[in-house]
Amino acid sequence: MARHEGRVLFVRHGLPDELVLARVTEDRGGSFCRAEAVEILEPSPDRVESTCPVSGPGGAGCCDFAFATPQAQRDLKAAVVREQLQRLAHWETDVVVEPIRTGRPRAVEVTAPDGNADGVEALGTPDIGWRTRLRLAVDGEGRAGVHRYRGSEVITDLRCPQPVPGALDGIAERTWTPGADLVVAVDSEGLQHIVELAPPTAGAAPRGRSRRATTARRAAAHTRRAERLVSGSGRAVQYVAERRWEVSATGFWQPHRDAAQCYSDVVAEWADLDAGASAWDLYCGAGVFAARLAEQAGPRGAVLGVESARSAVADGTAALRDLPGVDLHAERVERWIAGREQSPSVIVLDPPRAGAGKQVVGPLTAANPDRIIHIGCDPAAFARDIGLYHAAGYRVTRLRAFDAFPATHHVECLALLERT
């Protein structure tokens, strides 16, 4: 952030205490505008050569922290989480953002964007080559790429260092359906899956940079569209805690190659269920957390999972068929939880970016569980939910934050809450 003539400027590609030449990119009047640092006059000691050639000024919105050291990136994210918790949850606490490390050996070597391994960290660096799932746009000439930041134009440059090796193989060389999207997934066995989504219906994705146009484009991108399998089987094989899942390549799975294992390890540690205990896994997806809970609770325990995506519930039910205590339901969480009368020992929830909100946190805390494990990928939504828990008499006893999206501003937070 910077200030100029009494107004706030949100300056991308800048670091605290730097002196930069900034170009205003969006100004709708009011108290703030947006800008980009196009020339660094006095650089921060935390500045490095950007690892991403696609995301600089005027470029894509992918690696917006690629010009800062990994530690500086994590420090910035920690400051954001800390500020949001203080402002929205009225809770002051220290925050440390950790890199995701599971101790699991890597199967492939990660190299720099130019293909040269010189100067890159040791095998398995967490800062590049971490993304196993991505979505690409296709321009009017059938070329795949990424959207320009806050715009609809497609940049047909696939040199971003986020994807794991092999994720983008063969994509730049092909001509795709103009206006389509590509969903790309590399599963735990290293198999690349590519699914082409048909272009949105005419008029569903208007051009322009207005808030209304952006919202309409996002809505159109997430409506149901015809799929064409191009590569792989479309069924991604994933392993967590030595358990095998087979899930849709177009469905949700944590994009960081080690995130699902990392989060499930934390959930298992914090849940610490007794044999025969009960638990809920809300927004359960394919049941990664439900599996760990059920293993602790044993055959006499009961783990109820809820997820609105029916395909994910079907995939999870198949993967957990050897755990008789697990019962996954395809329903909206707020509707399902409103009718519950049981009091589980532990509730785990991993809501979407907007958070859980009063509709879920209210009945959830009224169920009076011993422990709640809340996971959030947006610091503001996470802090708002923490404030709701505090108001209901729960307090955070453990807090961890992970750099699950290196070189970006995104961060994942996990909190253990217990009744005071």
Automatic annotation (TrEMBL):
SUPFAM superfamilies: Nucleic acid-binding proteins, S-adenosyl-L-methionine-dependent methyltransferases. Keywords: Methyltransferase, S-adenosyl-L-methionine, Transferase. InterPro entries: NA-bd_OB-fold, SAM-dependent_MTases_sf, U5_MeTrfase_fam. One of its GO terms (biological process) is rRNA base methylation. The keyword Methyltransferase applies. S-adenosyl-L-methionine binds at Q254, Y283, E307, D350. The active site is at C377 (nucleophile). GO terms for molecular function: rRNA (uridine-C5-)-methyltransferase activity. Belongs to the class I-like SAM-binding methyltransferase superfamily. RNA M5U methyltransferase family. This is Class I SAM-dependent RNA methyltransferase.
